Amino acid sequence: MLKITNSRCFSLAFRLACRFNSTTTSASGFPGENSDLRGDGAIRRTELYGSTIEQTYSGVLSFLRRNYTRNLKGVDVAVTGIPLDLATTYRPGTRFGPKGIREASVQLAELKTYPGGLDLFEDLAVIDYGDCWFDPGQPKTVPIAIENHAKKIIDQNVFLLSLGGDHYMSYPLLKAHVARYGKPLSLIQFDAHCDTWPDTYPDSLNHGTMFYHAVKEGLIDPKTSIQVGIRTYNDDFMGVKVLDADWVHRHTTEELVEEIRNRVGDTRTYLTFDIDCLDPAFAPGTGTPVCGGLSTAQAIAVIRQLGSINYVGMDIVEVSPQYDHANITALAAATLGHEFLILLRNKKMVDKSFLFGNH
User: Fold this and answer.
1) Are 183 and 224 in contact (CB under 8 A)?
2) Cβ atoms of residues 113 and 64 within 8 Å
3) DSSP character at residue 22
4) Which residues contact 267 (CB under 8 A, 6 or more apart)?
5) What CA–CA distance (Å, rounded) separates 48 from 34?
6) 58-77 tens-digit pLDDT
7) CA atoms within 13 A on the CB side of 112
């Protein structure tokens, strides 16, 4: 028994030594293993590309441990947080969403991608731009603050991935992207709610009506837009194609992907993923949970096959950590964000016509 125990200890010690030895080969599959930099890469790494060895349970947090900076020179993708919950209609707390997603991203930054085995950040220059600042005591100033924050990034030819935050944030983000790319954009929306309920108040902060305004204002084209996972009723979906959760459960991933591709075609498209698209069993940490939704595995499988879409921007919203259990909601959101970045990396390396903020 002592012999077996000693053998196991030696084996573990050997693996750990290789894990943190900067002279090891790439065979072990850990990004950053050849770097001399150990820990706090978010603030200590000087290069945009490459990874560093981190202790998953400690250190300075950023999304996927990327450089925490507002220097956009040479950047492909900027990740930013929108800590908003002023527009919620049920449970608040999504202002803590960006922080929760960053915390849940640490393991994803540790290994090569699955299933492709890519060292994602050898090819894609991603930074964490930090959070959008606004004054929650002055609600009417919030939308323009978010819009201007986004414009500062995308006007520098940088692709924007936003972490939320309640879903209202997509409205000023759409305005910023339309200002850059022209209107209308197509919308791919994963959600339990259509968010197109009528609203006669143009200045209202409501995370259930912002796409009503977006359609009315011509920010998105309903004829080339699609909503996936819907399981709440609306008298008028305003012409947006709806594949509700029942439809998704009755069809294959490939059939769903084909419907999405056919709907948006090659139009410029904004992707928004409300985490409540997932069933509460997979995402309890959200403000308005609705039973009967997608599983995390279903969502990931679909996203992985949407690489042909002409994306101009993306967001993940409605993560409310205080209602979460074991971080499973934040982990789902972080994983989806990671999958989005893989799509963008593949566009950069395979689809040479995709120029991020220049297209």
Assistant:
1) no
2) no
3) T
4) 185, 186, 221, 224, 310
5) 16
6) 999 999 999 999 999 999 99
7) 14
**161 bridge partner residues:** 79, 314
Structure tokens at 304: 């992985």
Report all structural domains of the chain as residue ranges with CATH numbers, in order of start: 33-358 (3.40.800.10)
78 contacts 161 by C-beta, under 8 angstroms: yes
- Select from 221, 213, 303, 230 the least CA-distant residue to 265: 221
Residue type, 37: L
DSSP run (H or E) holding 15: helix 2-19
Tokens representing 43?
Answer: 């603030």
- Tell me how far apart the alpha carbons of residues 211 and 250 are, in angstroms, rounded to a whole number: 27
Model-level pTM? 0.89
Cα separation, 286 vs 335, in Å, equals 16
Q: Which helix (H) or strand (E) holds 216?
A: helix 210-216
Q: What is the pLDDT of residues 16-34, one digit of tens each?
A: 333 333 333 344 566 777 6
Kindly calculate the radius of gyration of the chain based on its CA atoms and give it in whole angstroms. Answer: 21
Alpha carbon distances (Å) from 105 to 131, 261, 328, 329: 16, 29, 11, 12
Amino acid code (one letter) for 67:
N
How far is Cα 257 from Cα 285, in angstroms, rounded to an integer?
Answer: 27
Q: Please answer whether residues 119 and 68 qualify as being in contact, where contact means their C-beta atoms are separated by less than 8 angstroms.
A: no
**Can you tell me the distance from the alpha carbon of 227 to that of 242, in angstroms, rounded to the nearest whole number?**
5
- The strands making up 226-230's β-sheet, listed across from edge to edge, are 67-68, 126-131, 77-82, 159-164, 310-317, 268-274, 186-190, 226-230, 241-244
